[in-house]
Amino acid sequence: MKAVIPAAGLATRFLPATKAVPKELLPLVDRPVLQYIVEEATQAGLGDVLLITGRGKTSMVDHFDRQPYLESRLEEKGDLKRLEAVRRPSELAEIYTCRQGEPLGLGHAVSYAESHVGNEPFAVLLGDEFVAKDDPLLPAMIELQARTGGIVLAFMEVAPEDVKRYGIASVAPADQELGGTTEVVRVTGLVEKPSPEDAPSRLAVLGRYVLPAHIFDAIRRTKPGSGGEIQLTDAMAMLLAEGTPVHGIVYRGTRYDTGAPLGYLQAVVQLACEHEGLGEEFRGWLRQFVADMPEVRAT
Length: 299
Hints:
- With 299 residues, the protein is an alpha/beta fold.
- It contains 12 helices and 13 strands.
- It has one domain: Spore Coat Polysaccharide Biosynthesis Protein SpsA, Chain A (Alpha-Beta Complex).
- It has a 9-stranded mixed beta sheet with strand order 5-4-1-6-11-8-12-10-9.
- The model has no long low-confidence stretch (mean pLDDT 90).
């Protein structure tokens, strides 16, 4: 199975920082966001990764190339730890790219993967979120798709006021034998970014999908929806209405959402606290910093 990472968006919420630097390369302590996502894919056995890029984002591909001059300088200095870290991105997976000329929605972006993935199921990983390495999500999704042959989504439960930010599912209990050790539901409907009063549930679609190849035909038949864009949610809803089975795994592990500034900063702090080399010192500094903040303690 191949992995597809749509990463052609404009990242307007991070401007001006992302005017020249892709959001996917913003650092989380010592690695860019995109490397965490590719690592998540390879951990699940997906060693063929297609990056769907856009204008000004060639540096994303560069990150996964070898850097002979830099590597030789580090080797000369005997800095083997940093040498290993610099080489690691190029050793993770086979990285391929294609270019989306204009960002016209997630469905439109995914359609660019058709010639690369062919007639096989494939995984889609959005470029601004990932899950904890010790609590993976993709392996269970891939296994479930192999058993059902349809669409497999990942869900998390969100607060009522947040449903307007996500695709939201209506669900029913899945067949018992599909559950195993994971919480599996059968999807009966999908709606993109509903108002809180119209939302069928609080189960929001995460940025992980395992899709059958006939999703491409559905995307071609999908008209622009929310925001005037071609939405992947709408294409999946079309297939659901036509009889394609859709299941979801409810994920209750740790998810890092770097798609907005607040979530990005939270991820930086979380990962810094957990970092093998920096964590203990950073946690100590953070405790003292919070304790010394004026007036905050009283409120």
